[in-house]
Amino acid sequence: MIAENLNRIKTEIAEVCARVGRTPESVKLIAVSKTKPASAVIEAFEAGHRVFGENYVQELLTKFADETLQTLPIEWHFVGHLQSNKVRYVAEKIAMIHGVDKLSLAEEISKRAKKYNRTLPILLEVNISAEASKHGLSPDALFSEAEKIFALPHIELKGLMTIASPDREKVKQEFKHMRLLFEKLKTLAPKPEQITELSMGMSGDFDIAIAEGATLLRIGTAIFGERR
């Protein structure tokens, strides 16, 4: 079932890309495996997928400890809300942290990345829907925070991330707004060429995200089924 779902999603991504004049290679699919067992990740890996995302540190650590998963060349992304006191658990193994929403968190990531002698890619999370229940910087606060974060060592700010409204009628405008923020961030970056990633689009709205320039899609339910 997971293999079939992956193939269907990848086909749909390719079709949307063709429709909007993009190449499928310009979009990376992150299979979000939160609440799913290691066996589900292994099944997706055996179907040819290599990039996975997790929302919770403890669950990610459980998967890191799995004897089979340890042997697989998986690219792990942390796509949930990360607390500063949990950074030390993931800084060594994560390919990218998507949900950075304040300077203090970026500073902690910088400190932990230095310990592991690496430069860790991060994305700034924007609360584009202005919902109180969601994490993220307001669009108004984004660029002043980004300016400070650009100066930190051992991390590389690669772009932006958001979770849109559940209402598809609002999603298009929100994603369009994100694309404009992304383009403005490039103009403010010390190295504009490093601003390459726009993480937006999930199971219910990835088609709109692709049309508005998303480079990273975070899809879970459509691949692994409903979460328990």
State the main characteristics.
228 residues; alpha/beta; TIM Barrel; eight-stranded parallel sheet; 44% helix; globular
Quickly describe the structure.
The protein is of the alpha/beta class and 228 residues long. The protein is built from ten helices and eight strands.
* Number of alpha- plus pi-helical segments: 10
Helix-strand pattern, N to C?
A: HEHEHHEHEHEHEHEHEH
Question: Could you give a short account of the major beta sheet?
Answer: 8 strands, parallel
What is the averaged pLDDT score? 95
How would you describe what is shown here?
The structure is a single chain. It is built from 10 helices and 8 strands. It has helices spanning 2-20, 38-46, 57-64, 67-70, 87-90, 103-115, 139-150, 168-188, 206-211, 221-224, and strands at residues 28-32, 51-54, 75-78, 96-100, 120-126, 155-162, 197-199, 216-219. Strand 4, helix 6 and strand 5 form a beta-alpha-beta unit. It has one domain (2-223): Alanine racemase (TIM Barrel, Alpha-Beta Barrel), CATH 3.20.20.10. The chain has 228 residues and is an alpha/beta fold.
